[in-house]
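Can't paste images in this forum, so I'm doing it all in text. The chain is below; anyone willing to post the predicted structure tokens underneath?
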Amino acid sequence: NSRAKALLKNLELWGIANICVTSETPDKLAGVFGPWFDKILIDAPCSGEGMFRKDEDMVKSYEEHGPEYYSRIQKEITDQAVRMLAPGGLLLYSTCTFSRCEDEEIICHILNRHEEMELVKLPLFEGASDGIGLNGCLRLFPHKIKGEGHFMALLHKKGGSERQRTAGLLNGLQSRKAAPLPAELTEFLSLIDREFDPSRIMIKNDSVYYLPEDFVPAKELRYLRTGLLLGELKNRRFEPGQALAMTLKADEFKP
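Text version of the structure:
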């Protein structure tokens, strides 16, 4: 959860509005979304062998939980990620460890268990190495590059490019209607040279959010953020938030 909060802060500072940040288990996410996402990045929890030189505490952590411990978690995460990937979608798996059982063997697990998945060969560059026992992956070793140790592999889900939305999400989209907005909010938004779809504006506990297109927050999930935090309603006035300010260009705000 603490890392999710750090992620949220970075997303807001970079002015990214089209976001949804949760802190949930993969199986719970897969149960809500189904094959929804066009692209998924798995920055998998791992034994961190590639970080030993950089952080001595990683060695202590490794002694408590080695590669076998993390490989079980990685298999669970990747199985659920495949469930959430839309046909035609891409899945990038990455770790900061050298262990084959957390790297190439996880990719083999995906390919053997999910026949709809195929490996996309990553191009090598100066200092990069191919996979060990599985061509097409990419490895970075600290004695070959200016950096630490990493592994990555790209997979493609066969099939069309159409997202298969779950019934729950479809029902949510159909039921979402534009509610009357407070006058102070409407007045402030009129100062911004940008179109806001009223049906995507959600007010919760006096906080005002602008939801991503075709997205309805699922009640089953815990969210740190749904879309762009526009600001807060306070005593009949609207106070814009930093997240909104970071998305604006200089010529978009009239005053």
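The radius of gyration is 22 Å. The chain has a mean pLDDT of 91.
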